[in-house]
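Subject: for your reference before the review

Hello V.,

The reviewers asked for a structural picture of the protein, and I figured it would be easier to keep everything in one thread rather than splitting it across files. Below is the amino acid sequence we used in the manuscript, unchanged from the supplementary table.
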Amino acid sequence: MVQRADPPLVLGFDTSAPHCTAALLLGDRVLAQRFEEGSRGQAERLMPMLEEILAEAGETWSALTAIGVGIGPGNFTGIRIAVSAARGLALGLKIPAVGVDGFDAREQQGLLAAIPAPRAQVYCRLPGQPPRLMPESEACDAARSAGLEFAPVASPAEMAHRIAELAGKRYQDSVVAPAPLYLRAADAAPARDLPLQLIDG
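And here is what came back from the structure prediction:
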């Protein structure tokens, strides 16, 4: 894989929750970012949003160093949309795509990394333990025992920024394509992920 000059130009995006969000970073500098609430129309909105981000920054697809994508946990359909897009873009551009889980994207000092889930549950990553789905009450008690604040957030405004930032630090060591992080069984059989076609004007 060809190594590009620093600082890296990284496009990060996420549709794992009721939002569609993206950010473009040059090193640690934010060139452009978007955040839109709503779980419907993510598949139709994501690629136009990425085009808008690049146009605003005066950049092109071919200038990208790496892609960062949120891999969940969260909404099954939303996760598949973003991961499929990242895989397709990485393949077409011949650049690495880095999967960033929702816990890393939400991580803050003193805060338990937790993501709202259906039926009064949360996706939670307790210190020193693998992530899992648990009742909110159990997660709240666990956070208190660990001396952490329990404040799960579905759609942090800076999520795409954080994903791009982490991808910029990890892309040179990335050898595995992004894959969805599912912590509960799907209510329906997941659709097959298909790479998107890339059209660079």
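For the response letter, the relevant points are probably these. The chain has five helices and eight strands. Residues 186-194 have pLDDT under 50 and may be disordered.

Happy to draft the paragraph if you're swamped.

O.
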